[in-house]
């Protein structure tokens, strides 16, 4: 960035005139402000001066007549009736000042570095946080197959560049561990990782143990821990998407990992209810299910002269109910879903991917006929074993009664070993299909294995 560009950036940030209002009420997470009518709109940033002198950045989330409803990006301590609230009359361009200098850095949802490595070099052109997805009729089609580094995914839910997959699981089933395997082993130019409402103690472990120096060098991390205000948790998802779009527009193959969409929706629920929206399905206001596709549709292929955003979104399934509202909505938008099952994890097989309930909508067109036949036969064998599992465990099944069941019993130990993978173990797609082919050689090509 030249000195001239930095000067223009500094001049654009100068504020000549302020419009001032005052706080009327503070109820829960919401602050109502009077005196700004005619000057602010939804999404505008307002600075509230607390009684201890600090400035608290807030955002307009709704109106009740002429009264503006605001929510804060920080703590509301020290804010009360009569506190000054002001907004610049010459509003600055919103968005993030993203540049190549962001690679290898950890930032908060507002784009401020939190890794202790010093300030980030600004870019003259700011990347908007909220923007529409590429035009549906003009954006590129999905690209070639991409190695995710996890055998179960590369074979049974093969992913293409620009595809969007969901990782669905309850708490403690291994979503974050699987995400760390993808962050370190997946094939991409740039990885953008968003931890939305994550446990604070896990951040350094993820950076130092899971990513490591090599993985961090190609990554940008956006962090909003569970104690962050709802606006910050919402912004963590939007900022990560904006950063991914910045690198996509420059022709990069971007891997976007977001953990989790559910916490993003919970933040939207808190914002909507505080703004006065009525609760609907399980307490989620209607705006949540309107905002969700706006975020998810931004991932995927760009225009033909741009790169692609391959995205994996984790979904925290409440009570292991795969049909709860957020999971159901996300599953209908994305290009495939990967189910992590608690029972599989309890058996000691990690990652605990339920292959029979997982699918990638791109598989039929991206794998060869031989590969599709291989995975079909493996799925059929697993389905046969699952159907007879209770009888086998009870000893009620007698060997030789059913040829297909005998085949499935013989294959399952090797298939379970194939589907198990250590968090530091990386596998390519070619290696994974080769191993699966060796396992399935014991099953003749024309064996009529029956699926459940």
Layout of SSEs?
Layout: H1 3-12, E1 18-27, E2 30-34, E3 45-49, E4 55-64, E5 67-72, E6 84-88, E7 105-107, E8 145-146, H2 151-156, E9 159-160, E10 164-169, H3 175-185, E11 190-198, H4 202-217, E12 219-225, H5 230-248, E13 253-259, H6 261-274, H7 286-296, E14 300-301, E15 308-316, H8 325-333, E16 336-339, H9 342-346, E17 359-360, H10 363-366, H11 369-394, H12 403-419, H13 429-440
Parallel strand pairs: 7-12, 10-15, 10-16, 11-12, 11-13, 13-15
Antiparallel strand pairs: 1-2, 1-6, 2-5, 3-4, 3-6, 4-5, 8-9, 14-15, 16-17
Helix pairs in contact: 3-4, 5-6, 6-7, 7-8, 11-12, 11-13, 12-13
Structure description:
Probable catalytic subunit of a protein translocase for flagellum-specific export, or a proton translocase involved in local circuits at the flagellum. Its EC number is 7.1.2.2. Strand 1 (18-27) and strand 2 form a beta hairpin. The longest helix has 26 residues, at 369-394. This protein is elongated. Helices cover 35% and strands 21% of the residues. By secondary structure, the chain is an alpha/beta fold. It is built from 13 helices and 17 strands. It has 3 domains: 18-88, Thrombin, subunit H (Beta Barrel); 95-364, Rossmann fold, CATH 3.40.50; 370-442, Substrate Binding Domain Of Dnak, Chain:A, Domain 2. Strands 7, 10, 11, 12, 13, 14, 15, 16 and 17 form a 9-stranded mixed beta sheet that branches. The protein has a 6-stranded antiparallel β-barrel with strand order 1-2-5-4-3-6.
């Amino acid at each position: 960035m030249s000195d001239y560009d930095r000067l223009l950036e500094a001049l654009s940030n100068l504020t000549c005139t302020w419009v001032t209002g005052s706080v009327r009420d503070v109820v829960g997470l919401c602050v109502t402000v009077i005196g700004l009518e005619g000057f602010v709109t939804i999404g505008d940033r307002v600075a509230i001066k607390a009684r201890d002198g600090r400035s608290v950045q807030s955002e307009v989330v709704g109106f009740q007549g002429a009264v503006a409803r605001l929510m804060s990006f920080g703590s509301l301590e020290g804010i009360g009736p009569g506190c000054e609230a002001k907004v610049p009359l010459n509003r600055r361009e919103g968005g993030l000042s993203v540049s190549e200098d962001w690679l290898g850095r950890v930032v908060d949802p507002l784009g401020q570095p939190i890794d202790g490595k010093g300030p980030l070099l600004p870019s003259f052109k700011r990347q908007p946080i909220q923007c529409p997805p590429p035009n549906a009729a003009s954006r590129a089609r999905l690209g070639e197959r991409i190695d995710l580094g996890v055998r179960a995914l590369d074979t049974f839910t093969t992913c293409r560049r620009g595809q969007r997959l969901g990782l669905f699981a309850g708490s403690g089933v291994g979503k974050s561990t699987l995400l760390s395997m993808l962050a370190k082993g997946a094939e991409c130019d740039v990885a953008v990782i968003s931890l939305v409402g994550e446990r604070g103690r896990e951040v350094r472990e993820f950076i130092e143990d899971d990513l490591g120096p090599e993985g961090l060098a190609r990554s940008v991390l956006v962090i909003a821990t569970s104690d962050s205000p709802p606006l910050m948790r919402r912004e963590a998802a939007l900022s990560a998407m904006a950063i991914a779009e910045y690198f996509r527009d420059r022709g990069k193959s971007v891997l976007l990992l977001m953990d989790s969409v559910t916490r993003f929706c919970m933040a939207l629920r808190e914002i909507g209810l505080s703004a006065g929206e009525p609760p609907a399905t399980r307490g989620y206001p209607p705006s949540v299910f309107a905002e969700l596709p706006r975020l998810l549709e931004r991932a995927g292929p760009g225009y033909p002269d741009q790169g692609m955003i391959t995205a994996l979104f984790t979904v925290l399934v409440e009570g292991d109910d795969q049909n709860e509202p957020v999971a159901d909505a996300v599953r209908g938008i994305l290009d495939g879903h990967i189910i992590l099952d608690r029972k599989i994890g309890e058996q000691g097989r990690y990652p605990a991917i339920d292959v029979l309930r997982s699918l990638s909508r791109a598989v039929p067109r991206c794998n060869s006929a031989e590969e599709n036949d291989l995975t079909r036969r493996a799925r059929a064998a697993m389905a046969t074993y699952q159907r007879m599992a209770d009888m086998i465990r009870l000893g009620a099944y007698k060997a030789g009664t059913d040829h297909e069941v005998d085949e499935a019993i013989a294959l399952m130990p090797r298939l379970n070993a194939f589907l198990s993978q250590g968090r530091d173990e990386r596998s390519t797609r070619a290696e994974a299909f080769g191993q699966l082919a060796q396992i399935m050689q014991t099953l003749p090509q024309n064996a009529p294995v029956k699926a459940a």
